[in-house]
Amino acid sequence: MSNIDVQDIIGPSAVMQGSSVELHEAIRITKERFPGQSFCVVEDWVWLDLDAPDLITEELASEGQQPVMLLVFNALYDSSSSANHHWFRSTPLVEFNDGMFFLTAYKLYVLLGPGRRKTMSLSAVVRLF
């Protein structure tokens, strides 16, 4: 687990559950289900429902994306990098499946363990990093 207290950064939020499988099993399932897809298995994550202007929401929709991003505090495994990730945010959500697969235009995130869910303004999310 990371040393960052998620609550200190995002404030009040609701608990949201990711998958309860072990890391090695999450990697196996993901490789089998999404062959060739770049993916990152994460814990200590926050599902951010973006409070964004209609124009931004409409633009995202026209690109097949939703006004949702992922804030990650602990990347356990990244199929395309051996770098040690510090906290980061994803690009907007394209599709969410099986309570654990958060697909963006560029990467698939596999959500493990409990996370948080919060609505946050787009401007606040951009200022986080």
Question: Could you explain the architecture of this structure?
Answer:
With about 130 residues, the protein is of the alpha+beta class. It has one domain (about 15-129). It contains 4 helices and 8 strands, in the order H-E-H-E-H-E-E-E-E-E-E-H. It has helices at about 5-10, 25-35, 55-60, 120-129, and strands at about 15, 40-50, 70-80, 90, 95, 100-105, 110, 115-120. Strands 1, 2, 3, 4, 5, 6, 7 and 8 form an 8-stranded mixed beta sheet that branches. A hairpin with a 3-residue loop joins strand 6 (about 100-105) and strand 7. The longest helix has 11 residues, at about 25-35. The mean pLDDT is about 90.
What is the molecular shape?
globular
Report the oligomer. single chain
Order of helices and strands: HEHEHEEEEEEH
**Tally of domains:** 1
Distance between the termini: 20 Å
Low-confidence parts, pLDDT < 50 over ≥5 residues?
A: none
